[in-house]
Design goal:
Length: 459
């Protein structure tokens, strides 16, 4: 990538703005209570692992994340809890080095970040509160860098205005903000395969390097945040191929071949990670078969379209619901909330609204393209061609969040407190980039037509 002074300045400003917002809600994008407590329950699994590792070793209980129970002076139960004293107890036990009697592992993710955090914890001379703060800053910084590289891509391809619009809409996104620093989610890992594809296609790396990057990026994603939004991540990963297919004029057969190669390599990476997770589970339950059964039968079943009769009521209800009901929930969610009580402002924007806006700009892009593309003398032919490629890419990326709502219907039905983040992987990011790119094109078109008129009437 071209890091000229102005490019480096844009990248630096983007990282700085995002990391300050992700770490402490600097711009008050969301309610502070929501920011402080969002997904604290899942993050407690990482903290519980660190407490367990401190006393019993990093790879005790297979290195799995989980919650400690029987904490000194705390009421805890014998099963995983997602609220109340058990969650708070994990942090208290870590900060105050409290004793505990047992450990409840969480079997659905490798939790490699917790293993790394536990290892560093043993060698870094920081107080527990300062160490957790340091980890959150690091996590927020890496996520900010990943998103800023996407902003930078829009700057290189479509200009400054498009990049700024992507940055601002990312900065003001409620859902991206509340996930930004969480130690369980490790959000940067979701976008790593997407960036790996852009790097390969932009830098024209070898096929061998592409396969290695694809495998490594997906493996890292699975190691750090498991199989959450896995279909979304994999579709997001191949989304850049749609853009370059159109811009570089590949044959459709070539596109399909490239998608198949990346898809196969990604599948191998996912399966490789399941072997690691199954081994971890086997260390606790005994036997690799029990680990594989938990992953491919129990966990997949309750999150997708499994037999409702085989699961507790909360999962059974989610499996019985229809897909359209699930999708409607996510269309009605808020992407932006600019309401301010002190100035009596009540501006709330739903996802369905921005989808309609994206469709509006996409339609105009198509109209402009079909009007101008036959004119070989048209000065902005490259720009309109790129704009059309981006439009196709935006609507292909719509499949990424949709895949989770459809394939993992059971999970999506229940977890409306977090799954809105899938809209930003990378559908809304690309959609706002399209708006910015179209507006830049429109300004250039007006100036171009104005110049033509002046040349025509100049004697």
């Amino acid at each position: 990538m071209n890091l000229r002074p102005q490019s480096f300045l844009l990248l630096s400003i983007s990282v700085l703005l995002l990391v300050t917002n992700f770490f402490n809600n600097q711009f008050q994008i969301v309610d502070q209570n929501w920011f402080d407590n969002h997904q604290k329950d899942t993050e407690s699994l990482v903290i519980g692992r660190m407490v367990k590792a401190k006393r019993d070793g990093i790879f005790s209980a297979g290195g799995l994340t989980g919650q400690i129970t029987g904490i000194q002076g705390k009421k805890t139960t014998d099963r995983l809890q997602w609220s109340g004293e058990t969650v708070e107890g994990q942090y208290q036990a870590y900060y105050d080095d409290l004793g505990f009697t047992s450990f409840n592992p969480y079997f659905s993710q490798i939790g490699f970040q917790a293993i790394i955090f536990s290892f560093i914890d043993k060698i870094l001379p920081l107080s527990p509160p300062l160490y957790i703060t340091t980890l959150k800053i690091l996590n927020a910084s890496l996520f900010s860098l990943v998103l800023s590289l996407i902003v930078f891509f829009f700057y290189l391809e479509f200009g400054l205005f498009s990049a700024i619009l992507v940055l601002l809409t990312t900065l003001f996104s409620q859902w991206i903000t509340v996930f930004g620093r969480n130690l369980w989610w490790v959000m940067w890992a979701f976008y790593l395969p997407f960036l790996a594809s852009i790097h390969h296609l932009e830098q024209k790396t070898t096929q061998t390097m592409n396969l290695l990057l694809s495998y490594t990026a997906v493996l890292i994603k699975c190691f750090f945040n498991g199989y959450e939004y896995i279909t979304t991540t994999l579709i997001m990963m191949v989304t850049p191929y749609i853009y370059y297919w159109r811009v570089e004029g590949w044959k459709f057969k070539c596109l399909i071949k490239r998608l198949l190669v990346v898809g196969i390599m990604s599948t191998i990476a996912v399966l490789s990670s399941t072997i690691v997770l199954a081994t971890q589970i086997a260390a606790v339950k005994g036997g690799l078969k029990s680990g594989l059964h938990h992953i491919f039968v129990y966990s997949v079943g309750k999150r997708t379209h499994g037999d409702a009769a085989s699961y507790p009521e909360v999962y059974a209800n989610s499996l019985k619901t229809d897909v359209l009901t699930v999708i409607k929930k996510y269309l009605n969610g808020l992407i932006f909330d600019f309401s301010q009580k002190d100035i009596n402002l009540h501006l709330k924007i739903k996802y369905q609204t921005v989808i309609i806006i994206f469709a509006f700009f996409s339609l105009f892009t198509l109209l402009f393209y079909f009007y101008f593309h036959k004119s070989k003398s048209f000065e902005l032919s490259d720009s309109i061609n790129k704009l059309l490629a981006l439009t196709l890419t935006v609507w292909f990326s719509f499949l990424a969040p949709l895949s989770w709502m459809v394939v993992f219907k059971g999970h999506a039905y229940i977890h409306t407190h977090m799954n809105f983040i899938t809209w930003h992987m990378p559908f809304t990011v690309l959609g706002f980039g399209l708006i910015g790119s179209f507006m830049s094109f429109l300004v250039s078109l007006i100036f171009s037509l104005g110049s033509s008129q002046r040349r025509r009437f100049t004697p």
